[in-house]
From TrEMBL:
Keywords: Signal
Highest taxon above the source species: Bacteria
Signal peptide: 1-28
Protein name (record): Copper amine oxidase
Amino acid sequence: MVYIINRMTKKRIVLLSAVLLSGINLKAQTYKPEFDKLLVNAKQGTIVELPGFLSEKLPEIPYDKMILPGPQFIISDDPEYIRVPEGISLREKVQPGAVRLYMYNVNGVKEPQKMDRKITALIRNTGKSVLHIRMLKYSSQKPSGNYFQIGKQGLADYFASKGDEKIREIKPGQALPIDEKLEKNIVKYDELAHGFYEFTVDQPAEITILQTDPATPGVKALERVTNILPPKGESGAGRGIYGVSNYLLRNKGVFDTQNGPSAITVAEGVKDNWVLGWESSRNQQAKLVGNYGVMYNMEIKWKSTNGKGLALVTWNGRSADSKWCNGMAATMVVSKGLFKEGIIQLPSDRLITRSAPESILIQVFPPAANGEEQTIKLTYSPPGASCLPTPLILIPVDMK
């Protein structure tokens, strides 16, 4: 079994082996009937211990995946740790239309000494007319060394955001901060600056992420800073601009509860390939290892021919493979079941889940009275700071 481990980053990535994802139904561990009561009676998002059951060897549910129309997608996460006092971590051009920007950068300055920094995002109008920018979704966290909390809360805020009707104007050749909070935040050594934005522009523009001293306005730093830092590769998921930002995923056929527990696994880099884009500073193709910031809109068809309901859980499946995978935290949007439809942080009763036998209850779905087909709808994006993949396990449960 071969694992690829990104050892240098706190956004840990571990890939499942091709053997486990080959479609072979290996014998899973034992599911005990008493687990039904634990899952059905648990609160949504809480950890439920299932000793002897959680395994990567569960049968995998095959699925079809389609690219959905979406915004131009930019990510700044390579170098993840900005080691110099002042420098540019990303610079990319965008065309008029919608843009998604995901910033995941850490103040890594140790020489000549550890120092407070500012990490900010700027947009410059490269067109010939006034640029109008309007925020569609906004997620901005205070810098912190608690990467798990930032990754989990960042997704929750993004999913909940309704945007802003305010339209800002930028004259040709001029620039302004994309997020005013970043201009005010002080990022201490080893703290993460994290922003997740979606906005529209009506002129060509240039996006820059840079680190500078806290007293210098980002626009001023943009005038003097010219060094685009080389990517580090081993310490970040990637950087650049990507044409894929949204997926629609549907399981093949209809999952039947009589078939027993099964799993759907995405963002593992084997069956679900990493998206490709372009990194302008080197003028070459880029790969987004982890598909962070990509939205998976999932539709899981299921039915119950044996009268059982369906519990949907996840777990930290890579915890046994490396010291880097000691925690997982995620956020998803899930359709109605025993609990109302909406955003759920996983886990909801603590910061992270660590390893088996811990599972996290996402939702419980009652069977239809006549056994007819139902559809689970789920929005998922790979959670920053956590190990990947995030397996989804469908468990038939007796709800009586």
